[in-house]
Structures are given as structure tokens and as C-alpha cells.
């Protein structure tokens, strides 16, 4: 697979999950048996004796509900699992674990992998135990009254520990050293952290160490809502650009496997709008599979639900907890199982709309989500979109504008009319030094214009929820 991908010019990034292993992993089995080499590979604790009975070491709660501690009959101790009980957490304070993880990275680098998407990195370290080997309780949160819910506690000891970014710095050095020794292009680290923005910025690196090239920017996926106005968009985007360390690369995420799909969260009539925004902002755009063809959530019954985040609770409220609706099979065609599988059954049911909404059909529709997405991808090869400066401004409550400009090259403007009323904008109200005329280069299916149509920068009409990309007629 790696050989063929190189021939096609496709780079493969591996999903790397360092926080935990399976409880069926050989390392965990040996650790549970107190093998001298592996006994401290995981977080173990004998528990507390309360009123003559043994109980969990503290009040820590799993992301997937309930106690984060599970009793192991063989070892006669509890082990920590911040996620499912079949996913015991590694002990990253053990140097042997750190080196084992380093060797995993080297193994895949030798196979030809071009980088790693690092899962849930902010969970890697917990607070160090005290002199007696105990861990403190986390303080109560006021988000919920359900003690089994992850939101019941304020997680100050189990995520975002100060050692965690430095772990990423070590891995970046490992990747850079591998390149020095073996040649080739830069290997990439993408790290998943749902942390406050000031902490996310630490993952880029510091004055003495390089970090991840792409610490995931979850600002828009976390803090944009269906009713967010253009000012809200501009604030979130500019906050990232302003806080990002000099010389680093921005990245943008609107959809992923943990959230409802873009078309469901914001409306199917805004799918092209979000793809235009994502793909004309500077830096790296990160697209969750299916968003390029505008897939939407699929209702999954309780009986068909497989997400542990939902299954670990009661049927009541499972739809709120489940991530399965955004994880259904990719809709390739109108064939059996949407062309995803020729089996009798798929892991999750296929969307009932796959006959009409699929990649094969969209290839033949000029302004389908797929073809708009392809046009945007092609546009990203333009020098202005690769190297140009960026201004993001709200023209009004309804309209957001993104200006990309580069000396002696074309200027591009992305316009989004977020809501349901027709709008007229003068580009000069928000941006300076614009030429008098632009042309349409990418249009959503809501547009009545055609590609190549000319428009004055002083008056641009936007239909409800219309989004367009404009290019200056002349280089400026």
C-alpha cells in the first residue's frame, strides 16, 4: 500500500493512540501478572479501605461514564481507564513506556508513513501520585448532577498536565531526526487536544523546541452554533490567527468523528458555505470524510448503537451521547450498502438518502457539493491562497468576508451570507486597496451567477445563505 501511495503522490498519516492499549494487549496481560518489565506500564492502585471495604482510589470519572478505575481480579488492584474499561491507560511517567512509544513511531516511519494523527494527547499524563502513591480527587463541576457523567467533575488532574506538550516535543524531535538520517520530506504530527486555546498553542512548540505542525484547531467546531453571526465567526478565526506563534501554520476543523455532521449542525443549505470557508482560510484545511459530499447525520436506534459513549449509559438520553450518527458508511454510489461494502450488514446502517446523495451521482452535477469542493481544492494551488496574507472581517450581522492577497498577484474574497435574508455588500467597507472589479470563480448551488461573471467591488448582491469566492480581474 505504501509503495502504491508513493506512486500516486498520496501521503499516508497513521492514527496513533498512545494514551491506552486494549486490556487484551500482551503488555497489559504481563503488567497484570506483575512481570518485572511491564508491571508499571499502566496506572495501578490498590484502592482505599472505607468502612472495612475496598473501593476505588478516588472520584475520577471516565469519559465513557462511571468510575475511571476498574478492579482487576488477577492483580488485586484497580487500573485507570480514562475511556472504556477495555482501554487501560499507559503510565507515561515510566521511561520504559516512553521509549516503547518512540519505537512504535520508528517502526511505522520505517514502513514509509508520512506522519501521525495523535489521538487524545491531552489525556496522556495524569497528576503525579503523592509520596504514599495516592491521587487527589477532582473538584465538583456544576454542569450536571449525574455523578457518572464526565461533566460532573472539573478535570484538573487527568488532562492538560504541564508535561504533555513536552512529550509532543520529544516526538517531533524523533521525526526530525529520522528525516535527517533517512532523507525525504518533513514528517507531520497532528495532535488532538480539546484544551483551552492558550494550552493548544503550547503544542506548536516553544523557544527551544519544535512541536506539532498541526495541533488541531477545534475553535469553530466547539464554539460556532447554528445561530452564530458573522461577528462570532470573525472573532473565533482571528483569535487563532492572532495567538498562533510566528512562523507556524494555521489549521481549521469544522467537522469530525466526535461531532454531528456540518450539514446537520448548521443546515444542509450551508454545506458549500463551510467548505468555502475551510478551504480559503490560510494553512491546513481538515475535512472529515463525507463532508466533501455533504453527508448528514443518520438516526441510529438504541439496538443498533455501538458507540461506547452511548452504550455505557441508559437508553434514555442515548441519542445525545452517541457519536454514531456521524460515523455511518461513506456514500460512494447508489449500489448495495452505498458501494461501501458487499457484505450483508455494515457496522452502522447506511443513510436512507444514499440513493440520491452519493459521490458517483455528484460527479455528474456541475454544482454538487463534490464539484464545489474539487474547485476549491484546485484553487488552493494558487499562489495567493498558498502564501498570501489574510483578513477576516464581518460586514454585518449576516455577512462574513475573507480576503487573501499577495503583492503582484490576484486578490481573492470569500463571501458568506449566513442567514435567510438577501444582502448587498460593498467590499470597500471592510477591505482596503481593492480593485474596482472582481469575477466569480467558485459558486454554491444557491448562486444565480456563472463562473467568470464580472461584478463591481462596490456592490455585490448575495442571496439567502449564498457563498461565493471572487477573484480580482487584475493583479494588484
UniProtKB/TrEMBL annotation:
Signal among keywords: yes
Entries under InterPro entries matching the protein: GH, GH13_cat_dom, Glyco_hydro_b, O16G_dom_2
SMART domains attached to this UniProt entry: Aamy
Biological process according to GO: carbohydrate metabolic process
One GO MF term: alpha-1,4-glucosidase activity
EC number: 3.2.1.20
Family: Belongs to the glycosyl hydrolase 13 family.
Pfam families membership: Alpha-amylase
Reaction(s) this enzyme catalyzes, per UniProt: Hydrolysis of terminal, non-reducing (1->4)-linked alpha-D-glucose residues with release of alpha-D-glucose
Name this polypeptide is given: alpha-glucosidase
Domain Glycosyl hydrolase family 13 catalytic: residue ranges: 1-327
The protein's enzyme class: hydrolase
Keywords, in A-Z order: Glycoprotein, Glycosidase, Hydrolase, Signal
Amino acid at each position: 500500500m505504501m509503495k502504491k501511495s508513493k506512486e500516486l503522490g498520496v501521503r499516508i498519516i497513521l492514527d496513533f493512540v498512545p494514551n491506552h492499549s486494549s486490556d487484551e494487549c500482551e503488555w497489559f496481560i504481563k503488567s497484570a501478572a506483575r512481570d518485572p518489565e511491564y508491571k508499571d506500564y499502566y496506572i495501578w492502585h490498590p484502592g482505599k479501605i472505607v468502612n472495612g471495604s475496598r473501593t476505588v482510589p478516588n472520584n475520577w470519572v471516565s469519559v465513557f461514564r462511571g468510575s475511571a478505575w476498574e478492579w482487576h481480579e488477577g492483580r488485586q488492584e484497580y487500573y485507570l481507564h480514562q475511556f472504556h474499561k477495555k482501554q487501560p491507560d499507559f503510565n507515561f511517567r515510566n521511561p520504559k513506556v516512553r521509549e516503547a512509544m518512540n519505537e512504535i513511531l520508528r517502526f511505522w516511519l520505517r514502513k514509509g508513513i508520512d506522519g501521525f494523527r495523535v489521538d487524545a494527547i491531552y489525556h496522556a499524563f495524569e497528576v503525579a501520585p503523592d509520596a504514599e502513591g495516592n491521587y487527589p480527587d477532582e473538584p465538583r463541576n456544576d454542569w450536571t448532577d449525574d455523578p457518572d457523567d464526565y461533566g460532573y467533575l472539573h478535570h484538573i488532574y487527568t488532562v492538560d498536565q504541564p508535561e504533555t506538550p513536552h512529550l509532543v516535543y520529544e516526538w517531533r524531535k524523533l521525526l526530525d531526526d529520522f528525516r535527517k538520517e533517512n532523507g525525504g520530506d518533513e514528517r507531520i504530527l497532528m495532535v488532538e487536544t480539546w484544551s483551552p486555546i492558550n494550552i493548544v498553542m503550547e503544542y506548536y512548540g516553544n523557544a527551544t523546541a519544535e512541536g506539532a505542525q498541526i495541533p488541531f484547531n477545534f475553535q469553530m467546531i466547539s464554539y460556532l452554533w447554528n445561530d452564530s453571526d458573522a461577528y462570532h465567526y470573525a472573532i473565533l478565526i482571528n483569535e487563532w490567527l492572532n495567538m498562533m506563534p510566528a512562523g507556524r501554520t494555521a489549521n481549521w476543523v469544522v467537522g469530525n468523528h466526535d461531532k454531528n455532521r456540518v450539514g446537520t449542525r448548521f443546515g444542509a443549505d450551508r454545506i458549500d458555505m463551510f467548505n468555502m470557508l475551510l478551504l480559503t482560510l490560510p494553512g491546513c484545511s481538515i475535512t472529515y470524510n463525507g463532508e466533501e459530499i455533504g453527508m448528514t447525520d443518520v438516526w441510529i436506534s438504541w439496538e443498533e448503537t455501538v458507540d461506547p459513549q452511548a452504550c455505557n449509559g441508559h437508553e434514555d438520553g442515548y441519542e445525545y451521547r452517541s457519536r454514531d450518527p456521524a460515523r455511518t458508511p461513506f456514500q460512494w454510489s447508489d449500489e448495495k450498502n452505498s458501494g461501501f461494502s458487499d457484505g450483508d450488514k455494515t457496522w452502522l446502517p447506511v443513510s436512507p438518502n444514499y440513493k440520491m446523495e452519493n459521490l458517483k451521482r455528484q460527479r455528474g452535477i456541475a454544482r454538487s457539493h463534490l464539484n464545489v469542493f474539487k474547485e476549491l481544492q484546485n484553487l488552493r494551488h494558487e499562489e495567493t491562497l498558498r502564501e498570501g496574507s489574510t483578513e477576516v472581517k464581518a460586514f454585518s450581522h449576516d455577512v462574513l468576508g475573507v480576503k487573501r492577497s499577495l503583492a503582484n498577484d490576484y486578490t481573492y474574497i470569500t463571501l458568506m451570507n449566513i442567514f435567510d435574508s438577501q444582502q448587498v455588500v460593498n467590499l470597500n467597507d471592510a477591505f482596503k486597496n481593492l480593485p474596482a472589479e472582481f469575477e466569480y470563480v467558485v459558486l454554491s448551488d444557491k448562486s444565480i451567477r456563472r463562473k467568470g461573471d464580472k461584478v463591481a467591488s462596490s456592490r455585490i448582491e448575495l442571496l439567502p445563505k449564498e457563498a461565493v469566492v471572487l477573484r480580482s480581474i487584475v493583479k494588484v
